């Protein structure tokens, strides 16, 4: 997994001195992860991993309120007979200068899927705002 992340993203980031080695790249990623504190921010908004459902709009609004930028949230679609989607991944985006920035969908692709974002047999896609949403305790 680490090799994949370095090959896909790190080699691009390596053009910046602050990220130009695997040690710097993954060290900075951990530092940003701890600083962003997604779970803590959601908890402050009353959204916690549980068996109850949340509105996707409430989750987005909470995160946008904290960070001032729009994250990209990907979900697993409801399983057969279920009504709720499950959050699979939340992406917070940065500029090359490591400033927070809105996450944008690629032009003309409302549902980008990359093969390595898989959970079981289902692929992640952009969450549906109108479906109840389950927030599991384990997120990528």
TrEMBL record:
TM ranges: none
GO CC terms: extracellular region
Entries under Gene3D superfamilies matching the protein: Ribonuclease T2-like
Listed Pfam families: Ribonuclease_T2
Residue runs in coiled coils: none
Any GO BP annotation: RNA catabolic process
GO MF terms held by the record: ribonuclease T2 activity; RNA binding
Similarity field: Belongs to the RNase T2 family.
Protein known as: RNT2 Ribonuclease
Organism field: Zosterops hypoxanthus
């Amino acid at each position: 997994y680490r090799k994949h992340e370095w090959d896909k993203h790190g080699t691009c980031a390596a053009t910046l001195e602050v990220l130009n080695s695997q040690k710097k790249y993954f060290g900075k990623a951990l530092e940003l992860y701890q600083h962003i504190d997604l779970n803590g921010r959601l908890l402050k908004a009353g959204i916690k991993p549980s068996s109850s459902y949340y509105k996707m709009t409430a989750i987005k609004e909470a995160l946008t309120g904290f960070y001032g930028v729009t994250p990209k949230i990907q979900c697993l679609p409801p399983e057969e007979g279920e009504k709720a989607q499950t959050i699979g991944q939340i992406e917070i985006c940065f500029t090359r200068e490591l400033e927070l920035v809105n996450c944008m969908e690629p032009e003309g692709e409302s549902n980008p899927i990359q093969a390595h974002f898989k959970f079981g047999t289902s692929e992640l896609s952009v969450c549906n705002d109108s479906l109840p949403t389950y927030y599991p305790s384990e997120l990528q």
